[in-house]
Specification:
- By secondary structure, the chain is of the alpha/beta class.
- The chain has eleven helices and seven strands.
- The chain has two domains: 167 residues, Alpha/beta knot (3-Layer(aba) Sandwich), CATH 3.40.1280; 70 residues, Orthogonal Bundle (Trp Operon Repressor, Chain A).
- The strands form two sheets. The protein has a five-stranded parallel β-sheet, sandwiched between helices.
- It is elongated and about 70 Å long.
- The N and C termini lie far apart (54 Å).
- The structure holds S-adenosylmethionine.
């Protein structure tokens, strides 16, 4: 998996000679993430060489013939724990692939919560290695030695870090320059300015468009922009008032919210 799983239309020259962002994944099931990344925005960005990916399967770094990657927890109890030796070997292989330097990021429910600002910081990193846990988690000795920081995708527990890694990768890659078809989209999406996105309507045919808010069909871009801003303000005030506290609001925004009793 460690070499075969690399998929990118980018030239296969030495990674340190290639300036495009490189993301690697260490996991029991890296194929899960490879598959997820092949579709939509992330897949197109890969095909266009905007980022590179390599999945490292922990079993390739197991030290016994049975390819064991987990052991019983010290002190007893249920479940299994990912062993340090395969994790260390896989980390070393990932570092080599990155040309020596990479940020090692563990996916774990006890990590810092992923948000748009974090995704944006990660998207500026040239080399990132995501590590997905399984079972009860990972051996603390490896965590202490190798992990730079830890990310949670929310206050719930899923069965493995692969899907969490796919979420992080998607959030990062869509922010890479040129990844989105319309370069404006990432700037106007939810959370980009601490506001939720406005409601969207798909144009169909004249009859189907009849119940779309008339401002959106009027062609006056200043009015459309104002309508969208106001809808964002309304939605954020009603659904996520905590975000509104941090948003940069104009006097017109404040007046609008006051007029609407918010
Ligand atoms: N025993 C761990 C605990 O209570 O925190 C949960 C382990 S979970 C079943 C297995 C793996 O899934 C974790 O090591 C982590 O990589 C991943 N995982 C589960 N929930 C996650 C979350 N909210 N954010 C990021 N990763 C998560």
């Amino acid at each position: 998996m460690n070499t075969a799983a690399e998929f990118s239309a980018a030239p296969t020259s030495a990674p340190d000679a290639n300036p495009i962002p490189a993301i690697s994944l260490i996991a029991a099931f890296p194929e899960l993430v490879e598959q997820a990344c092949r579709f939509g925005v992330t897949g197109r960005a890969l095909d266009r060489g905007l980022w590179r990916f390599n999945g490292f399967s922990l079993r390739d770094f197991a030290t016994d013939a049975r390819k064991t990657i987990d052991g019983r927890p010290a002190g007893g109890g249920s479940g299994m724990v990912l062993m340090p030796a395969p994790l260390r070997q896989a980390t070393q292989a990932a570092r080599l692939w990155h040309g020596g330097e990479t940020k090692v990021i563990l996916l774990s429910p006890d990590g810092d919560r992923l948000d748009q600002a974090m995704a944006s910081r990660l998207a500026r990193e040239p080399n990132v290695t995501l590590v997905a846990g399984r079972y009860e988690g990972l051996d603390q000795r490896w965590i202490d030695e190798c992990v730079d920081f830890t990310i949670s995708i929310g206050d719930y527990v899923i069965s493995g870090g692969e899907l969490a890694a796919a979420v992080v990768i998607d959030a990062m890659v869509r922010l890479l320059p040129g990844a989105l078809g319309d370069s404006e989209s990432a700037l106007t999406e939810s959370f980009s300015a601490e506001l939720l996105d406005w409601p969207q309507y798909a144009l169909t045919n004249a009859a189907g468009n009849a119940d779309i808010p008339s401002t959106l069909l009027g062609g006056n871009h200043a009015l459309i922009d104002r309508w969208r801003r106001e809808q964002s303000l309304l939605k954020t005030a009603r659904r996520r008032p905590d975000l509104l506290q941090k948003a940069k609001l104009t006097q017109a925004d404040r007046d609008f919210l006051t007029k609407n009793g918010l």
